[in-house]
Structures are given as structure tokens and as C-alpha cells.
Amino acid sequence: MTREEFEELVAEALDRIPPELTRLMDNVAVFVEDEPPSHDPELLGLYEGTPLTDRGEWYAGVLPDRITIYRGPTLRMSATREDVVQETEVTVVHEIAHHFGIDDERLHALGYG
User: Fold this and answer.
1) How many domains does the chain have?
2) What is the pLDDT of residues 4-45, one digit of tens each?
3) Mean per-residue pLDDT over the chain, rounded
4) Model pLDDT, residue 61
5) Which end of the chain lies in a sparser environment, N or C, as judged by fewer CB atoms within 10 Å?
6) Could you tell me which residues come within 8 angstroms of residue 71 by beta carbon, excluding any fewer than 6 positions away?
7) CA–CA separation, 113 vs 110, rounded Å?
8) In a domain, 11, yes or no
């Protein structure tokens, strides 16, 4: 799968997020990278920033939070295009949930591990 095709899957996954949630997202940008940092080669996605639940009056004038979805590990773990579509959607939801302050333990319980 080309990078462009993968980027389109990420965009489609974002489009499936309910509008009532996307309206609440604040100061966050989503990126696609080919590979994760070398110290974590299996990483599918990464949220970097300050979750909405941790922001206070001090939160102003900061760079956007960053969600990165990694193409390489997703493709390597997927046997079919359908697997890539499903894993990409799960990863996008997982990282957006971190933006909302939901931790990994709760995400695993909800099936977004």
C-alpha cells in the first residue's frame, strides 16, 4: 500500500469520528509517518501533547498536540487490506482518545488496545 493510500485511510478514519467529538477536539494535528522511533519499532500510533482533561488556564499559545500514525508497522502486522483498514481505524480512535484524556487501560477495556 502506498503512502498516499495509507494517508487516505487515516483521513477516512478521522471522517468516521462522530462530529460531536471532533467539535470538541482542540489544538491537535494528525500526521502519517512511515516508521516509528527506532526504540519502539512496533508502535502503531503516538499522541504527544496535553490531554483536554489536563488543560487549565495556563494552556495558551502552545503548539498543537500531535497524533502520529505509523504506516510501516501497521502494514507489517496486517495480512489483508481489510486488516489495514481496521487497524488504522482502531489506532486513530486510540490516539484521539488520549487527546480526550482516556488512558491505555480504559482503551484496552473498550477494545481499542
Assistant:
1) 1
2) 999 999 999 999 998 888 888 889 999 999 999 999 999 999
3) 93
4) 86
5) C
6) 1, 3, 6, 32, 33, 34, 35
7) 8
8) yes
